[in-house]
Write a structure and sequence with these properties.
The complex is a heterodimer of chains A (about 260) and B (about 525).
Chain A: H1 2-13, H2 16-39, H3 51-55, H4 59-80, H5 82-89, H6 93-126, H7 149-176, H8 179-199, H9 203-212, H10 214-218, H11 234-258
Helix pairs in contact in A: 1-6, 2-4, 2-6, 4-5, 4-6, 4-7, 4-8, 6-7, 7-8, 7-11, 8-9
Chain B: H1 5-13, H2 24-37, H3 39-62, E1 66-67, E2 76-77, E3 91-119, H4 133-136, E4 147-153, E5 162-168, E6 173-177, E7 181-184, E8 192-199, E9 202-208, E10 215-220, E11 227-235, E12 239-244, E13 250-255, E14 257-281, H5 287-290, E15 295-299, E16 302-307, E17 310-313, H6 328-350, H7 352-359, H8 363-399, H9 409-437, H10 440-459, H11 465-474, H12 507-531
The chains are: A mainly alpha (about 260), B alpha+beta (about 525).
Chain lengths: ~260, ~525
Amino acid sequence: MLTAVRAEWTKQRTVAGPGLLLLAAAVGTIALSAAASAAVNCPGVGCPADPAESSLTGVLLGQTVIAVLAVLMIGTEYSTGMIGCTLIAIPRRWQVLVAKAVVLVVPVLLAGGLAVLGSLVAGWLLLPGAGWQPGTANIGFPALAIGNGPTVRAAVGSVLYLALIALFSLGIATIVRSSAAAIGIVLGVLFVFPILAAVVTDPDWQRHLKQIAPSTAGLAIQSTTGLDYLPISPWAGLGVLGLWAAGALVVGAAVLQWRDV
Amino acid sequence: MTSPGSTFLERSAVSPAGDSLGGFGSLLHAEWTKFRTVRSWVVGMVLAAVVLIALGVLLGSANRSTYSAGPGTEEIIGHPYVPIGPGGEAVTDSFQFVHQQLDGDGSITARIAELTGGRLASGPQGPAGPPPVDEQLPTGNATPWAKAGLIMKADAAQGSAYVAIMVTGEHGVRMQDNFTGDIAGPAVGDPQWLRLTRTGDSVTGSVSSDGTEWATVGVVEPGLPADVLAGMLVAAPFQETVTQQFGGGGTVTGGPTIATATVDSLALQGDWIGPWNGETVGEDLDSERLAGIVGFREAAGTFTVVGAGDIAPVAGGSGTPIERALVGGFAALTIVAVLGVLFITTEYRRGMVRTTFTASPQRGRVLAAKVIVIGGVTFVVGVIAVAITVPISTRLLEANGNFVYPISLATELRLIVGTALVMALSAVLALAIGTILRRSAMAIAVVVVLVVLPYILATAAVLPAGPSEWLLRITPAAAFSVQQTPLAYPQVDGAYLPAFGFYPLGPFAGLLVLCAYAAVALGIAWVLLRRRDV
């Protein structure tokens, strides 16, 4: 197993792509977060905006880059035929997938942590200019302070969200064996559900859609205000995304095991 | 993945297509053969259409509208009655109408001495019952689109043809007809004299500050019958302030308003059949609260008319714009982006591109042929899928009690062709970005991030209205404006926000933004193709 992990690590660190993609994910996340923090406004007490969610908006962009990274991790092996060598070297195929998951998740957690930290700093600097002043009680700026429980949960949760998106993408790519098809499926699932939930007016349908969609359920972890009105509670939402990721990985491991490469 | 290399090399070599365009015909034929012989691409294209239709059906089935006709009555599937104007659009037609019958030609002149109004005092009433009507009437400045003036209307039914000239709260004198027509009059000082003159089919509206020197505001032909109801109108629309809400949707603050007009110096010419008759057109408008308040009274030739409601087109509201049924277009667009990218990157991955460029050394022409094939196929598939989805979803939505805004044939065509164009242009953009990057996953992600992500950020995320509108001006997501069917009327205050499906750019300007992105990407791709070693 350790051999498998070391082999995957060597594959990742000896090409430039993954490192650049991680960097792009972090930069993209921070850039969009900063832009959103600069754009939102909160005119007075009682505005419904959520400081943590606003300052972590960039995760929407970061997740696409992470998805690309994850999909390429196994998709490239299929497009180059490298997968044949890999599976000969490690005949217990599920170990390959586990090793890939480990080698994928650790750097994503690091880059994600950097991205989220950068986004929070940007929000901390920019949000006061948008009307979040220290001291306004109910939704005030202190909600973004380090050490505030919900903010820490939103931050840690967003990093975990990125890691789970990576695992989900890896699973899908293992199933379909094509980077292009996999990224299409992953981005379709991530982006179409929120749009669908926005146009469905029936409240029950809307709630259920937001509960089962990986992106809307998973991003509930970023909410720090109005928790009573969320379609799904923050950790349960992240759990839904976890189920999607686990499901994709299990099916991926199964087809990898029983399929002819 | 299939590996059809040898087959399409042979086919393109023996292409029967004419060489009238210096071989471009055979190039097109070669690219078309490449596309149609890869089974997964054809399956993908069919899947795009199926997903678009399926999500339209899902939306039609999932959105249910119920309402109750009044307090205590049971909720039923359906929607409150929405009048339809002469032009076929949904309208609001609820106002205070003080009328006589006018047969044939004639005119009516009056002076609007005063127009006051505001929010109607609400809340619990005293134990002695409601206070006298006079004390309930707000006396401040009338709300911006409060209307008081003269009107000729086919009949008192909601949605019938009319022409009116009016003084408004803050928008000066207007001449309006058949709900959508709106002509701004010249600025004259208070008080304002108004006149409507009917001659045959045409009606002239005039305004004066002293009752002797008249300026013509406009001449319209509203299509009135020979005998009309004519007289005074007073209306005061709901005053709403809507702010785009965090996470999509909007917050509405405000409420019903009322207006009081003092009208005197009334002069009639022609064949008028009295007496003056006060009527609340559209009784369902907040009728319980307003009963006993709206109406008119006359004393020594001076009329005091109190009214609420509006006579105007509907600009967004509880109805369903049919473009919502095209939500599957986003999924279809993602699939199409995958195909557009693969159409070129597969050549690179398989090394096929060398054969292609050896067979046709003018690489720009190869790119052009690919653009035509992928754009054309996507467009045709898009037209078919949207043309199937729109009527099916409309039926389903209506069966579920929703009010679907009626659209003209031209708008429906724009919706169908426009949506297909958005998909086709996205496919071309994907092809160009695939050519530039030569890596499929990266290129697909770039296309989705360019086209779909801004739409989500603008309509269903944290951004307020201003930045959302800028996103829908400068990113390729601007092109979705081609789907907008409800119009933003300048003469109606409405929540014209991205979250409600209103775009800052017009339908074709939005499409041009996507065109520009595709063109620039194609230009870069073309330069790179010529400079690069395959």
